Request: fold
Amino acid sequence: MTTGVANLNLLWASFIVEEMSRCGVDTIYAAPGSRCAPLTVAAARHAKLRVVTHFDERGLAFAACGAAAQTRRPVGLITTSGTAVANLLPAVVEASLRELPLLLLTADRPPELQDRGANQTIDQVNIFGRYAESFVELPCPTAALPATWVLSAVDDAMRHVRGGPVHLNCMFAEPLMPSEEETIDPQYLADLGCWRDSGCPFSPIEDSAARLEEEPSEEVVSAVSAQRGVIIAGEEVGDAGSVLSLAAQLGWPILPDITSGLRDASPPALSCGELLLAHPAYGDASTWEVVLHFGGRVTSKRLLECLAMRVPERYIHVQRSARRLDPANAVTDIVDLDPTLFCRRLLAADLPPADPAWLVHWQDGQARCAGALEVFFAEHDELSEPAVARLVPNLIPKDHVLFLGNSMPIRDCNAFATVGPAATVRANRGASGIDGNVATSAGIALGGGVPVTAILGDMALLHDLNSLHLLRDLPVTLIVINNDGGGIFSFLPIAGQEDIFEAFFGTPHGLSFRQAAEQFQLPYICPTTVEEFSRTYAEHVGAPALIEVRTNRIDNRALHAELDRHVMEALKGS
Reply:
C-alpha cells in the first residue's frame, strides 16, 4: 500500500480539524484558496463544525474576532498562502490586545518553493510577531512523523489560545487532493485507536481557572477602607451585581464605561461620569484617595488625562489578565483575582462606609448633568450625532448587542447615553481601529446568534465596505453616521490649520451609501428627523438594513461645544 502525498495532506488536515473540534472549536471561518484546500475540505466535511466563508481575508478575520468576543470560545480561521495571510494582521493585532481566542490555520508552500520567486509565496514564519501567543510551523505532511505529533501540536496551540491568537502555519506540497487509487498504510494509524474511540483531545488541557484563588492582601483591604474612593468600570466587568453591591457598601461612585455592562444600573453608577470629569469639582483626581478599577479598557480620554495629571494615592486594578492596562501610569496594585470573588471577599470584610457627603456630591452632579441633557435635547430636536448616540441605547431591545464603531460613535455614546443600554455593548477597543467594524458586527451575530445594531462612521464603513456582503442574511442593523469625512479630526488642534485641514484630515468623499446598500441587497433608509429615525429604527431593528444619517462636521463640532457649555453651566456651584 502507498502513502500518497495528497492523501497525507488531507489526513493531516483532518487530524488538525478534528483535534480543534475536540478542544472546543465549533466554528471555522474560511476564505477560498487553492493551497489551503486540504484544510478547507477537512473542515467542510466535519460533521460537528460550522464553516463560515467570506472572500476577503481581512473581513473574515474581523468576523472571527467578533464571534470570539461574543462567545469567548476559540474560533478557527483558514486562509491560503501569500498576502492572504498578511491581510489577517489588523484583526490579529485586535485579537491579541483583547486576548480573543483565535486559532489561525494558514496554508504555506513547501520548503523547495521558499525564496525562489514562486508564485503566491512569502515568508510566513512568525509573520504576526509578538501579536501571536504561539507560532507552530507544521512541515509538509510526511509518514516520517507520527500522527500523534500532529495531534500534540494542535493541543499545544490550544493551550496558548486562551491568551490570544495562535498561528499554525501548515505547509502542503502538490498534489493537494488525493486520487482514488491512493491509500494510507494502516500501520501509520495504528497508534490512534484510543484517541479515535475516546472522542477527547489527545492531551487534554488542564483548566487553569479551577486553581485556588488567593485572598486580597491586607494592604489592599486596608486601602479600600478609604473615605473618598472611585470605582472605574471598564470593558466587560462581568458580574455587575457584585460591583454594585460593593460600591453601595463603600459609598463610592462608579464611573461606568459604555462597554462595562453597568450603564443601565441605578446609582451609585453615574451614567454622566464622562461629562462630570470635565468639571474640576469632579475631575481633580487628587481628591480621590483610592481607585478601584474592574474590567478592561476605558473609552474616556478625559478620564486618562485626569489620572495622568493627578495620580491617586492608590490605584487597584482587579483583572484576570497578564496584560498591564495602565496608559496613565497610575496603577499601583494589580490584583489577579476574579472580580466577583474579589467583591464578595471585600463585602465580607465589613469595611467602614465612606463619608456620605462624598457620594452625595457625585450624585448631585449626576442629577444636574442628566437634567441639563434632557433640557438640551428637548430644545435641540434636530437629528444629530449626539442625538443618535442618545436615542439608540434607549431604543435597542435588551437581548440585542450594540456594536459601537471607533472614533466618534463610541465617544458620543459614552458621553450622552445617560440611560441604558440594557443591551450588551461591544467595540474593537484593543487597537481602536476603524477597519473591520462591519465584519466584526457580522461575527458577533454569527457567533452568538444574537441581533446586532452597529453604529459606525462613514470612514469606518468605507474601510470595510465589502463586508456588507456578510450582512445580507444576518440580523444586523447598520447605522452609519455620514459627515463626509473624518469627523473626529474637527475636535483636534489640527483643525485650526485651515490651509491643509480639509484636504488632508477632513478628506471629504462626497458619497452616499444608497448604492452600496443596493449592491449588497440591503434595505436602505435615510431619515432626516428624530421622529423619522426612531420610527425607521424600530421597523428595522433585528433585521439586515443600512440606515444612513447625514450630518455636517462643522455643525457637529459647534453642537458639541454648545452641549459642553450647557452642562458646565448646570454644574456651576457644585
